[in-house]
Every structure is written in C-alpha cells, then in structure tokens.
Amino acid sequence: RWVEVGPLLDRVLGDARTLSRDRHPIRLEGEAPRGAQIAGNETELHSAVANLVTNAVRYTPEGGAISIAWRRLPEGGGELAVRDAGIGIAREHIPRLTERFYRVDLSRARDTGGTGLGLSIVKHVIQRHGGELEIESQPGRGSTFRLRLPPQRVRGAAGPATPLRLVHSEERPNQDA
Ligand code: ATP
Ligand code: MG
User: Fold this and answer.
1) Are the C-beta atoms of residues 79 and 145 closer than 8 Å to each other?
2) How far is the CA of 38 from the centre of ligand 2 (A)?
3) Alpha helices (H) along the chain
4) What mean pLDDT do residues 125-130 have?
5) pLDDT band at residue 147, thresholds of 50, 70 and 90?
6) Cα of 165 to ligand 1 centre, how many Å?
7) Has residue 29 got a pLDDT over 90?
8) Ligand 1 within 6 A of 45 CB?
C-alpha cells in the first residue's frame, strides 16, 4: 500500500500542536511535496513519525523550534527529517538511544515522563520498511533524526519541497482554564 506523506505529516503536526500547547510554547513547521508517497504500513509509519515529533517537543525547551521536512534523495530514495533546537544528546549516548528502555539522563528523564521505548519502535518500523534511522545531535544545540527510505519504497514529487503547513503554538497555555 502507498501512504501519502503530506496528510501523514499534517496529522502528526496537528497532534504535536496539542501536545506542545499542553506543555509549553514551541514553534512547529512542516513541509512536504504534494503527491509524495511511501510504500508501507500507514499505522506503523505514523507511529514512527509521531514518536520522533513527540521527542522533539518533549526535549525542546520553551521558545524552541521544530521542523519536519520530506525530501527525495539524489539516489532515488526519500528522507524525512525531524529537526529540533532542543537540549541535544551527548555523542556517547547516540549509539544506545534505540535500545529498549534506554534514556539519557534518568533524573531529568523522570520528570519528562516516558519509558524509553519510542526510538526502539522507530528503528524497528524503519527497518521493516527497508530503511534506516540516522541520528545527529549536538548538546545544547539540538538534534536531527532522519528516516531514510530506499528508492523502491518511494514515489512522487521528486521536485523541491513546498511548504505543507505552518503550525504555531506560541501562545502561552491558559493557566486559568
Ligand atoms: P517514550 O518514547 O517511550 O515515551 P522516551 O522519549 O524517554 O520515552 P525514546 O523516545 O526511546 O524514549 O528516547 C530515548 C532517550 O533519548 C530519551 O529518554 C532522551 O533522553 C533521548 N532523546 C530522544 N529524542 C531526543 C531529542 N529530540 N532531543 C534530546 N534527547 C532526546
Ligand atoms: Mg520518546
């Protein structure tokens, strides 16, 4: 089955907007070329992208920005990049992030809630789709998580990305509500 990338990102951004509004003001934006598609399981792909975006929101302090972008690769595959300007991850932790229950800083992690399963699910899903997860991060600057898919899994919209939708949630959560 072919899954439309645009509507998938739209849905994830909508959920993330609610999530970030409950926590703190964060700016979210996304872009995807119209017509881009990935061959695979929609529920699994949604869960992978949603996990990355939930992390980005969770590990980005107030005022930070998060972006999601889809692009076709020169070799013919495709890549979804979830980028945040959050707390970042020290180099030595990166290889272990996709282990089940692995969390970087347990004292801090305790008050951000979560079990340490998200990235193990993301890795599992992307591998089932013949792709890979690439993680790049700098402590204090932010992180980029890339889902890479091979050429046979991707079709449509080889051109440059166009803005999909901007989601702003900069207003402060209403304390009186
Ligand atoms: P869960 O996803 O099960 O709710 P979790 O978010 O702690 O819990 P993972 O998504 O697997 O678990 O992430 C593992 C750890 O990697 C996190 O606890 C956090 O320390 C670190 N991490 C993940 N994403 C980011 C990010 N965008 N910025 C900084 N640290 C991150
Ligand atoms: Mg997580």
Assistant:
1) no
2) 23
3) 5-23, 42-58, 106-112, 118-128
4) 98
5) very high
6) 25
7) no
8) no
Question: 89 in ligand 1 pocket by Cβ < 6 Å?
Answer: yes
pLDDT at 158: 63
Smallest-distance ligand from the CA of 89? 1
Ligand 1 within 6 A of CB of 121: no
Decide if pLDDT at 99 tops 70.
yes
- The model's pTM: 0.89
Q: 5-23 and 42-58 are packed helices; what angle lies between their axes, rounded to 10 degrees?
A: 30
**H helix intervals, 24-146:** 42-58, 106-112, 118-128
Calculate Rg over the CA atoms of the chain: 16
8 A C-beta contact, residue 31 and residue 164: yes
Share of the chain above pLDDT 90, in %: 55
Q: What is the ipTM of this complex?
A: 0.99
Structure-token match 């050429």, residue found: 151
Which SS3 state, helix, strand or coil, does residue 86 take? coil
The neighbouring-strand residues paired with 90 are none
